[in-house]
Design brief:
The protein is an all-alpha fold. It has four helices and no strands. The termini are far apart.
Length: 156
C-alpha cells in the first residue's frame, strides 16, 4: 500500500502596509512632543541645566519637528514604503519617556529638579502623547514588517 505524505503549510497572518495617511496623526504627535518640551524648558532657547539636559531638550524639539516633516513627506509620497519614518517616530517617543523615568526615578547626574516629581501636569501630558506616538509607530512598524516583501530597514 503506498504511503501518502500530506504537507500542511501554516499560513501566517499577512498585514497590509500601514496606510500613508496614518503618518499625519503621528506627525502631529511629534510636533506636540516638541512643543511640550519647549514649554517645559521655559520657551526657546530655554534654560535647562546641566547643559546635557538642555541639549537633550533641543534634540527632542528639533527631532520632533524633523520627524514630523519626514512623516508628512511619507504621507504625501510614501518614500518607497520605507520604515525609516516609523523608526524616527519611535525614537522621538521613546527618548523622552526614558528621560522622564530616569529624571524622576534614580535621578540624573547633577540634575535633581524633577526627582520624585511623578505628577507634574506637563510631564504627565508628555507621557500620554509619547505613549500614543510610540503605540502608533509600533503598530506601523509591525504592519510594515509583516507586509509582503517588506523589510524593516531604513531603506524599505
Amino acid at each position: 500500500m503506498p504511503s501518502v505524505l500530506i504537507v500542511r503549510r501554516e499560513q501566517s497572518l499577512v498585514l497590509p502596509r500601514p496606510h500613508p495617511l496614518i503618518a499625519l496623526p503621528a506627525a502631529l504627535l511629534c510636533l506636540v512632543v516638541a512643543w511640550i518640551h519647549v514649554q517645559d524648558q521655559g520657551g526657546f532657547p530655554g534654560s535647562k541645566s546641566p547643559r546635557y539636559v538642555g541639549i537633550g531638550y533641543y534634540l527632542v524639539e528639533a527631532g520632533g519637528v524633523l520627524t514630523a516633516a519626514v512623516l508628512i513627506a511619507y504621507a504625501v509620497r510614501p518614500l518607497a514604503r520605507s520604515a525609516l519614518p516609523w523608526l524616527l517616530a519611535g525614537g522621538i517617543a521613546a527618548g523622552p519617556l526614558i528621560g522622564y523615568l530616569l529624571s524622576r526615578g534614580p535621578g540624573l547626574p547633577d540634575y535633581g529638579d524633577d526627582r520624585g516629581n511623578w505628577t507634574e501636569p506637563l510631564g504627565l501630558a508628555s507621557l500620554a502623547v509619547e505613549a500614543a506616538l510610540l503605540a502608533v509607530a509600533a503598530v506601523a512598524l509591525r504592519m510594515h514588517r509583516r507586509a509582503p516583501g517588506a523589510r524593516v530597514s531604513g531603506h524599505g
